[in-house]
């Protein structure tokens, strides 16, 4: 128990250190890329700082697999170099128990990664986009996970669900006259991008006069405002930065409307398998510290970890692209790269257990 806790704490420290370095570098490059927007509208230094800080959780998720691999490799390598692993083995800790302890720590890392990916990132990314977009453009009044408000000429628009392709569900439009007096309201269950405009579907329009309210129902209606696709795209969150539930809802929406959902389904299953990827990358460090790597220095371990990370990234892109070309089911296609690394890790660990 003490051994498992000691090992886990060291792995967490190593992973956290690598994450801090990688995320800091990524935020620095984001700062350089976004610096041109500083000073536009109300996007001042304070909002710019908030935007950068809220961008950090998504970057933590992006770098988590590599950080788990490098952090575990450096931590376990240092324990091997300091002969601590030998001391533990002399006290009765077997290789199998060592693997189990690392696996337990990897499971906790995977759980933390899942929580950040599924609960923190959707909120932080939405807030970051709200701060940037509302700061630069006065047209966006408020954006939250419950919906967003947009001012378009004399129209006030509320969108409950805005999807990554600019399509939306449950839209309310309030039409005002030049004296800001409400003239009519429009409610639509769905909206699709069509020729750089919005095509509203299942529409209910209410015309307000001093004497009565007239209600009109239409199957579809072209929105006549100036709500461009470019503005909508600047407001949406990328599929990989949505929660699993939101992504599932989005895929269901596309399927219900007979739209292509292949890319979104792939994003959903990659998010489902993401904790498993983090866990595998952490466990992958084991065979590289039980063998000849125990006499190597930190620089060699870092290079080995980076190379393995690059191999995974390349393999992930190549195999998924190949799977898309071969029309492989999304839940299989998303799992293939991680599954290969699971088999690779199991093979290396099996060799070490046999030799020990």
Task: Write a compact overview of the structure shown.
By secondary structure, this protein is an alpha+beta fold.
Walk me through the structure.
With 356 residues, this protein is α+β, with helices and mostly antiparallel strands. It has helices at residues 2-34, 45-81, 84-90, 95-136, 229-235, 244-256, 262-283, 287-290, 298-325, 330-355, and strands at residues 140-144, 147-152, 155-162, 168-176, 182-194, 197-208, 213-222. A hairpin with a 2-residue loop joins strand 5 (182-194) and strand 6 (197-208). The longest helix is centred in the first third of the chain and has 42 residues, at 95-136. The chain is elongated, with a radius of gyration of 26 Å. The two termini are 22 Å apart. The mean pLDDT is 84.
